Amino acid sequence: MELTPFEFETLVCNLFGKMGLESKLTRSSRDGGVDVVTFDKRPVLGGKVVIQAKRYRHTVGVSAVRDLFGTMMNEGPTKASLSQRVAYGPDAYDFAKDKPIQLIDGGGLLYLLDQVGTKARIEIPPDE
Q: If you write DSSP's letter for every residue of the chain in order, what string do you get?
């Protein structure tokens, strides 16, 4: 929680850049629900991916995934990704199933960061 929302979005953007994708942050306001846009230049497998970075303290429910799916329909990417530093509820996974949406939870985010040589940890302060 030490990272501001902008810093978390920047972390996610840099992660996808280190993974070999062209990545750029969107404007902070009026971004249409998209925090990062990436492009995979590979023929057939590549394309545009829209990413939403959530820095929530608690589990993300289905409404955030529905919002991302709506954004995806508007933006026209080949895939969408929702990166979260904690976890998703079962209803979020159920909704994303059979859709081109990838849910990256805290463990997945730490794994991807480790794969590109960035050591990180997630510390959630106790509720006040």
A: --S-HHHHHHHHHHHHHHTT-EEEE--SSS-TT-SEEEEE--TTT-EEEEEEEE--SS-B-HHHHHHHHHHHHHH--SEEEEEESS-B-HHHHHHHTTTTEEEE-HHHHHHHHHHTT-------PPP-
